[in-house]
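Whiteboard transcription, Tuesday session. T.W. wrote the structure tokens on the left side:
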């Protein structure tokens, strides 16, 4: 269902530490749900990492496989969050955990930038999640847990943006 009452199109950036697990999965899931629901209030969806360790790399192969099993195609290439560009370009900057939020707030330099920052789990729809855990050092089930949380929170984010 399209929301033509909301003329201001939003640009959404998902951020995690390395931009190879959580934020590219959030980007793919959110994009898929926006397309599936026919929403027209999103202009751009992207992801970035707080560190540049994986710049230019595809997402973690375990996350790509776990997402593919659910019908999501993660195609983004890792890039480092650039506060000089990203705070101006994006309306919503969504961190995956408390550390991400703390670091994003440290990078905010101008009035209004902090108000663009939210934690992904703030959009949990009917469930209580503290944060999106980093599955990188865990087993395969950690990737599925992250996808469960991201799916739920993406639905909540879309509902929030419709308001």
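and on the right, the sequence the group agreed on:
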């Amino acid at each position: 269902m399209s929301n033509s009452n909301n003329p201001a199109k939003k640009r959404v950036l998902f951020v995690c530490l390395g931009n190879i697990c959580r934020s590219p999965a959030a980007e793919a899931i959110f994009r898929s749900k926006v397309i599936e629901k026919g929403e027209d209030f999103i202009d751009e969806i992207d992801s970035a990492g707080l560190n540049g360790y994986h710049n230019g790399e595809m997402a973690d192969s375990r996350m790509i496989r776990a997402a593919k099993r659910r019908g999501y195609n993660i195609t983004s290439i890792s890039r480092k969050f650039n506060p000089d560009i990203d705070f101006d370009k994006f309306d919503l900057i969504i961190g995956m955990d408390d550390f991400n939020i703390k670091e994003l707030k440290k990078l905010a330099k101008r009035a209004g930038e902090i108000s663009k920052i939210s934690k992904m789990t703030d959009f949990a729809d009917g469930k209580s999640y503290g944060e999106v855990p980093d599955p990188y050092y865990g087993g395969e089930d950690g990737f599925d847990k992250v996808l469960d949380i991201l799916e739920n929170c993406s639905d909540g984010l879309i509902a929030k943006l419709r308001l």
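Someone added at the bottom: Residues 10-162 form a domain with the Rossmann fold fold (CATH 3.40.50.2300).
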